[in-house]
Amino acid sequence: MPIKIPNDLPAFSALENERIFVIPNDRAMHQDIRALKIAILNLMPDKITTETQLLRLLSNTPLHVDIDLVQMSSHVSKNTSQEHMLAFYKNFDEITDNRYDGLIITGAPIEQLEFEQVDYWEELCRVFDWSLSHVYSTIHICWGAQAALYYHFGVPKYGLEGKMFGNFKHHINKPDSLILKGFGDVFHCPHSRHTEVRKSDILKVPELNVLAESNEAGLQLISDRSERLFFQLGHWEYDRDTLAKEYFRDVRKGLNIAVPYHYFPDNEPENQPIFNWSCSANLLYSNWLNYCVYQRTPYDLNDLEPVNNEYV
Question: What pLDDT shows up at residue 16?
């Protein structure tokens, strides 16, 4: 929450320059406060696990957040009961007249398909278009990030010889980015994907910035210049045991799956993984809600201006 201090206090300008959230007395007296409206388009097969992971991260600020869970109307979930979907999810067509402070579009384990082969691709393209005018800031995760980069900017994805699978060390490229405020020089984050987006293609698009990457896993966080669109190639939302569950599931299926990199201590699957990305995950989503959404979105969402990117 903001620090309320007198306008003429010498510390005011210093803190403001450091992007500490300060608010002058005169503004505080006239401040209207409302709940942030956040939508989650959940494309993952196990809806309940993913929604729980994301809601946990969105709950770690004092901000009041109202959530709408959204599904594709052109796709029927096979791994989550229809009772759950009917009780808690809205079809995209039901929210097209709504406006939101923020939107999260998850990944999906379909990255080996061409985008146009995905059964809900046309509807997802409608979501991408709609988000530019009806949402202030959007986080796209993993396959959702690859799909959005392809749709908005023409950035291709490439198949990998082996699955990018593990918990990797990353470094910050743009430390002045609001969403990375408070991060150290390095952080950890899991990746689990069969395809990649290449930095050389991102650098060809003037409207995109690489915010963070890994020497081993490649790109992790990209934004447009306005920092209203974020593209996250890893899975900050993963729990301690998510990669382990994926690994043992594939082992049971008899698939040729390598032990996740840098995940099990001593590379022994019987050892409990070290949960060393939770702090950066909580910080990133707190920064997004506070600095990229709450402080920037209009009080009246009818006053929302579209994302204005030359390439979008």
Answer: 65
